[in-house]
Amino acid sequence: MNTTKAHNERMAKMTFASVYPHYLTKVEKKGRTREELHRVIMWLTGFDETKIQNLIKEKVTFETFFQRASLNPNAHLITGVICGYRVEDIENPLTQRVRYLDKLVDELAKGKKMEKILRGS
Asked: A Pfam family matched by this chain, by name (predicted)?
């Protein structure tokens, strides 16, 4: 699926710190924990707890966030629709990675089992 250039630029410039509180609120409202959210982020990116906190403090953009990440080799197994986009069909790599994270957070909030969210890892 093709996203617009403006959409991709907006994704790149958005800061992880500005979105993180929304992720946390979303999962906690559904009875999940901060630790579970961090486990999902760590699985996708390879970041540890300290690195996640540092990236929030630095207010890095999603572009920088994913440049520094070591994307999980099983990330391509993340499929489905999030925000009206089928993640496996998004052509822009950065936008796809942001939507991978959105999809994982959504699955966590919907109560999926952690082993399913982490694609069997």
From this structure: DUF2200
